[in-house]
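Customer escalation, tier 2.

The customer says the design service returned an amino acid string that "doesn't look like it belongs to this structure." They asked us to rerun it and document both sides in this ticket. The original structure tokens are below, unchanged.
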């Protein structure tokens, strides 16, 4: 097996600064203690701690080994008589070097293994989420496509056997399923955009009331009879966000309330400031979430929770998209049932305090 030396001994400026910080801190601490204690028994232990911390918080073995060598030289040069001179003949010197090198190698090895295990675990979880998402998508795409194909076949075979009212109803159902597919594609595009641009998400201060207004107007195109009440602060609230993605979140949450709220007839969307966060909430007057579904939603298991609520339309994909978008903004999302019935889903976005205090 060929060793990957670059992986074992990576060199980064960040790791170099970490090593220098711990060595400088060890040196300063030894100098301070020496004011009160003229002995030098503690010096080796403090530098050993610096080697341990360097090995733990840097990648690979390079800086752990360098800190071991540098630590031994500092002990010899600064804190061993004759001071500020190297003395390579003192007893026990080789053992000190070997001990500190051993500590650094062991610590670096353990740290590297832990990081590798964490990477493997994260990769496995990502793959599981991807497979769950693909299964959910295949279900959600197959259902409306089958419906569209079936109703189109009926019209093509003998359109005249249907009354004008029946033909209109069929066309409405085809359009509804087509609209659902369009929104599904929008959600998938949002997920792709988040995965590609999470580190460079372009957040611009936007007026929260405008984003909510746009989301409600778009929802009305799909559900013209939906009753939506909006509540916003008197003062314009600017929230750093990607307005397109946050608008998608609001639409998903409102649509979930309409489709899965079970007898929900009213929706309320509000936003307020809470301890440096902008809290957006979508509330309905339906039956609320089942407890097991609520637990899964708050644990982030949206895809797994989807089929329990509605066998024809998947709630999990929309909520998975919402969760990904909110996390990319540095926020959090949670769902709760109201005391008097209904349910509400809230998401929190960090505020730019100076912007809103002007």
């Amino acid at each position: 097996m060929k060793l990957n030396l670059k992986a074992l001994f990576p060199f980064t400026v960040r790791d170099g600064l970490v090593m220098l910080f711990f060595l400088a801190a060890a040196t300063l601490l030894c100098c301070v203690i020496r004011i009160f204690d003229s002995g030098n028994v503690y010096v080796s232990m403090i530098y050993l701690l610096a080697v341990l911390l360097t090995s733990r918080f840097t990648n690979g073995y390079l800086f752990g080994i360098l800190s071991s060598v540098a630590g031994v030289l500092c002990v010899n040069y600064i804190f061993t008589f004759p001071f500020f001179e190297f003395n390579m003949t003192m007893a026990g010197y080789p053992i000190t070097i070997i001990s500190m090198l051993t500590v650094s190698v062991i610590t670096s090895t353990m740290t590297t293994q832990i990081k590798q295990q964490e990477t493997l675990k994260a990769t496995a979880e990502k793959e599981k989420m991807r497979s769950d998402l693909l299964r959910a998508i295949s279900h959600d795409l197959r259902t409306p496509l089958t419906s569209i194909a079936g109703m189109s076949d009926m019209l093509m075979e003998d359109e005249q056997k249907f009354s004008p009212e029946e033909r209109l109803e069929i066309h409405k159902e085809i359009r509804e399923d087509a609209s659902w597919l369009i929104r599904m594609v929008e959600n998938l595009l949002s997920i792709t955009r988040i995965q590609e641009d999470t580190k460079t998400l372009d957040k611009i201060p936007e007026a929260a009331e405008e984003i909510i207004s746009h989301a409600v107007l778009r929802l009305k195109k799909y559900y013209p009879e939906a009753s939506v009440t909006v509540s916003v602060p008197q003062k314009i609230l600017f929230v750093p966000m990607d307005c397109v993605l946050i608008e998608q979140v609001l639409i998903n949450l409102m649509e979930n309330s309409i489709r899965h709220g079970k007898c929900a007839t009213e929706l309320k969307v509000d936003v307020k400031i809470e301890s440096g966060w902008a809290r957006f909430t979508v509330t309905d007057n339906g039956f609320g979430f089942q407890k097991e579904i609520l637990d899964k939603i708050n644990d982030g298991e949206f895809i797994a929770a989807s089929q329990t609520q509605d066998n024809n339309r998947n709630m999990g994909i929309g909520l998975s998209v919402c969760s990904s978008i909110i996390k990319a903004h540095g926020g959090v999302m949670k769902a709760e049932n109201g005391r008097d019935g209904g349910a509400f889903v809230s998401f929190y976005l960090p505020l730019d305090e100076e912007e809103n205090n002007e």
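Tier 2 assessment: The sequence is consistent with the input. The radius of gyration is 31 Å. Residues 304-312 have pLDDT under 50 and may be disordered. Sent an explanation to the customer and offered a walkthrough call.
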